[in-house]
Request: fold
Amino acid sequence: MPSDLAKKKAAKKKEAAKARQRPRRAPEENGDAGTEPQEVRAPEANGTPLPEVDALTKELEDFELKKAAARAVTGVLASHPNSTDVHIINLSLTFHGQELLSDTKLELNSGRRYGLIGLNGIGKSMLLSAIGKREVPIPEHIDIYHLTREMPPSDKTPLQCVMEVDTERSMLEREAERLAHEDAECEKLMEFYERLEELDSDKGK
Reply:
């Protein structure tokens, strides 16, 4: 099975071949308006970092840290430590001393989807944050991805954005691309491809 990197390379080669075959157009001239045309671009949060976006992101992160410091969570893992299901008993959650959950049972079974429904301020986001930061006893073999806020505007697809979060995959793909340009027969490159295929098969399970 070809890796994502191999597919990307093949697609780039096809695009380059098509670009060479296209006839080139002469540049079109507009009338003189008396002023130089100015390029108006929307700010790119995905490319060049914007100071205001960075400042706001830092502010939000500090706020989340303060909220986490004011939160207290207790609970006991009742399911088997090697299970893919998570059953927590005696779950209690307090925020600034106010009790949001008291001696509750939380059951999350593998393969199911769950939604939290309730009035504002009853602790839905607090519970998700506690789970996302592993403040409740969740076995290490269970992956947790908690999206706390929307990401900056981007031309990327949601799937591409999620894939970028996978740091190991990104690092392996970068290294594989670098090695492919240097030495296509490199043994290390083959190891990277094998690991990338393993990550793809893990994702499909």
Observations:
- The helical segments are 4-21, 51-69, 124-132, 158-165, 167-182, 187-204.
- Residues 56 and 151 are 12 Å apart (CA to CA).
